[in-house]
Every structure is written in C-alpha cells, then in structure tokens.
Amino acid sequence: MNKRMNVNSDTLWKDLPRGGAMLDAGNAVDFKTGDWRAMKPIWDKDKCKHCLFCWAVCPDMSIIAKDGKLVEFDYDHCKGCGVCVAQCKFEALELVVEE
Ligand code: SF4
Ligand code: SF4
Question: Which atom of ligand 2 has the smallest separation from the CA of 82?
C-alpha cells in the first residue's frame, strides 16, 4: 500500500511521483486545488433561499451544507468554475476575480 503523501508549496519536484501521478485513492482533500483559482464565487446569505441547487452541481464538493442549509464554501478546493453561480436562480452567488 502506498504511503499517503502530503503535497504542499514546500514539496520538491523530485519528491513527486513521476508524471505527477496520484498513486493513492481518496487523496483529493490533500491537494489545495483552490490555489490556482482565477475566479471565486461570493455568497450573499441574505438572498439565499437554501434550495441547495448549487450544492448539487458543484463538481468539487466545495459547497458545505448542514441540516438542509448552505453554511459555507470550501475555498481550499473550490476551483472557481462558476457552475454554482450559473445554477443559482436567486442571484445569491456572484463570480468575481480572485485577488
Ligand atoms: S442555489 Fe443560490 S439560493 Fe440556492 S442554496 Fe445555492 S446560493 Fe442559495
Ligand atoms: S465555483 Fe465551481 S468548484 Fe467552486 S463552489 Fe462553485 S461549482 Fe463548486
């Protein structure tokens, strides 16, 4: 079994698996893919109706819901694709340029 690797900004290229292959399953949480996001969804809580359509379509499971309500965004892993923004019919989400 492969040892789970903690990749971060201090990881040297020579320590990565050849070709950047991910050798162990279930490791997506270890990779902070939000680092390379160019756009970012901003949530307006006052306009949100908690329909959770955005939660259902997020390809990265970066929208966190609890007890049937949207509670926060996981910006460590959100890639800024904007699918959630396009899905929201209540204008509770806006896609802005990442700063
Ligand atoms: S789709 Fe819009 S209104 Fe529905 S939960 Fe998401 S942010 Fe709220
Ligand atoms: S921008 Fe994309 S990855 Fe980020 S929360 Fe919305 S749907 Fe998920």
Answer: 1
Query: For ligand 1, which residues put their CB under 6 angstroms from it?
Result: 43, 48-54, 70, 87-88, 90, 92-93
| Own/partner long-range contacts of 86-90 (Cβ < 8 Å, ≥24 apart) | 87/53, 87/54, 87/56, 87/57, 88/53, 88/54, 89/51, 89/53, 90/47, 90/48, 90/49, 90/51
Give the closest residue (by CA) to ligand 2 atom 3. 78
Reported confidence tier of residue 3, pLDDT bands at 50, 70, 90? low
Taking the model in full, what pTM does it have?
Answer: 0.81
14-73: pLDDT as tens digits: 988 888 777 777 777 877 889 889 999 999 999 999 999 999 999 999 999 999 999 999
